[in-house]
Amino acid sequence: MENSGALLSKETFCNALRMIGEQEAINEEVAKALSKVSDGCCTFGCDNKWLEALLMVLKEAVHDQYDYIGWWLYDAAEDYKVWTNDKSGVEWCLKEPEALYDFIIMECQD
């Protein structure tokens, strides 16, 4: 079930999420460096319109109506586990972007 109605391939989706993670790490390094020469009020990478646009497109392209992408990037627990809401309560480990893509495509489409 590679694309199941999604407008974006699994490979592109995963590459985009990995690149976002890489950029977040770079932004953190820059913010740390800036904090050494400022009074600590400086934030770097906030209100990034490019990132907002990319996340908006990714979300729409895979029909992520519950914003699992945002959860995955910023709020997920260390184990990245979620369970389906149906009676079976299937556990998913979403640590890798491929698993996130499969979960959204297979479990979160109405």
Structural write-up:
With 110 residues, the chain is mainly α. It has helices spanning 10-37, 49-61, 68-75, 97-107; strands at 81-83, 91-93. It has one domain. It is built from 4 helices and 2 strands. The two termini are 16 Å apart. The model has no long low-confidence stretch (mean pLDDT 87).
Across the major sheet, the strand order is 1-2
How many domains? The number is 1
Which overall shape is indicated by the principal axes computed on the Cα atoms? elongated
Order of helices and strands: HHHEEH
What is this structure, in a nutshell?
The protein is mainly α and 110 residues long. The chain has helices at residues 10-37, 49-61, 68-75, 97-107; strands at residues 81-83, 91-93.
Offer a few descriptive terms.
single chain, two-stranded antiparallel sheet, mainly alpha
